[in-house]
Design brief:
The protein has about 90 residues and is mainly α. It has a domain of about 50 residues. The protein has three helices and no strands. Helix 1 packs across helix 2, helix 1 crosses helix 3 and helix 2 packs across helix 3. The termini are far apart. The mean pLDDT is about 75.
């Protein structure tokens, strides 16, 4: 049940990150959830490195959104640099 909850929160965080970040992100719902979950892990890792969170403590909701925005920004820059090499 923990993984279902994590995926649901990651999806919501990913949706908020897509709404906050300016521009158009052409990612699907599953990738939105994955980016939200990865953003939460990134926020937790950075928060532990800076000293905001204890070891093993998850990032808060706002930290997760900030992490997801950062991951989505990096993802959009990486995919934009590949520039239309798709089919």
């Amino acid at each position: 049940m923990h993984y279902v909850w994590m995926a649901l929160v990651g999806f919501v965080v990913g949706l908020i990150a897509r709404a906050v970040l300016p521009g158009t992100q052409s990612v699907g719902l599953i990738l939105t959830a994955v980016l939200g979950i990865v953003g939460s892990f990134v926020a937790g890792f950075i928060g532990q490195a800076v000293g905001w969170y204890q070891a093993g403590q998850g990032a808060g909701f706002i930290g997760s959104v900030v992490g997801a925005v950062l991951v989505l920004f990096i993802y959009s820059k990486v995919t934009a640099s590949q520039g239309g090499s798709g089919s």
